[in-house]
Amino acid sequence: MRTTATTTVILGAALLVGMFQPAWAGFKCTPDMVKSGQTCIDKYEASVWRIPDPLNTNKSLVRKVKKGKATAADLTAAGATQLGTASDNYAPCTDNGQNCTNDIYAVSIAGTTPAAYITWFQAQQACKNSQKRLPSNAEWQAAVAGTPDPGGDNGTTDCNTASTFAVANTGSRSSCVSADGAFDMVGNLYEWVADWVPRSTTCGTWSVGVSSTGDDQCLAGAATTGEPGALLRGGYFFDGTGAGPLAVDGFGQPSDSSSSACVARASRIFFGPLGIASWPDSAEATADGAA
To answer: Please, are residues 7 and 276 in contact by the beta-carbon 8 Å criterion?
Structure first.
């Protein structure tokens, strides 16, 4: 899963725009994220962790997670359990996102197995607990720009689309990186984005001039029964040329989970042009000190 941060832009008098520099212009993303336009998006597909006693014993670790400074070693040392690597083991956090508060946390770390088997609702809550959110479809599309559109997969540096047919550790495919510096947005695991649409019933095709490698375009038709569709982006490790920056799947329901999809990538929100960044707020920054 990936997350993003957005700037609220006030459209008004040109004089005001010229007089004040937007607050986000000089803002630095937390270490686990990269800047994409007016947003921050996770550098890596999220791993999801259950942190014991997050409000007391491990309160400082949760602050590190929210500030993008937690490492896998920090989490392991604190007794945190990595979830979604081999099965759907998020309970008591339920498929519909209940019982997840202060329980599971989405963390953007290199060299870990990204979380699969996670529903849209659970991914949303894991992001929220880390003071992030799922990116919109438009934000995801902006952040993926520059990621290679796979023709092949050499099994080492290319995007993980058709070689090992298994999930790879985050950031291990060194050439699979966007112009903004986000890894694995193509292949590896499909990624939830925030948008819901009428659930797709079939696939279409991109125009040849738009996707020369034939990225998946399964956003056609509209189911009239059952759940809505929650968009998945980027393709996964078995998609071959169907994976890519334009790959989109509207078949998935928000309550679905899968071993090949449903990872999260998070984002954060800014306020501007005259506001301040939403993280860290002054009270928590003071409480954190130098942590």
So the answer is: no
pLDDT band at 284 (very low <50, low <70, confident <90, very high): very low
Rounded distance between C-alpha atoms, residue 254 and residue 273, angstroms: 34
Compute the distance between CA of residue 164 and CA of residue 2 in angstroms, rounded to an integer: 23
The pTM assigned to this predicted structure is: 0.85
Return the amino acid letter for 28: K
Q: What are phi and psi of 124, to 5 degrees?
A: -60, -45
Superfamily designation of domain 19-269: paralog of FGE (formylglycine-generating enzyme) (3.90.1580.10)
Mean of the pLDDT values across residues 234-262? Answer: 90
Dist. CA 198–CA 278, nearest whole Å: 32
Contact criterion met (CB below 8 Å) for 52 and 61 = no
- Render pLDDT for 35-78 as a digit per residue (tens, 0 to 9): 999 899 999 999 999 999 999 999 999 999 999 999 999 999 99
The neighbouring-strand residues paired with 191 are 233, 263
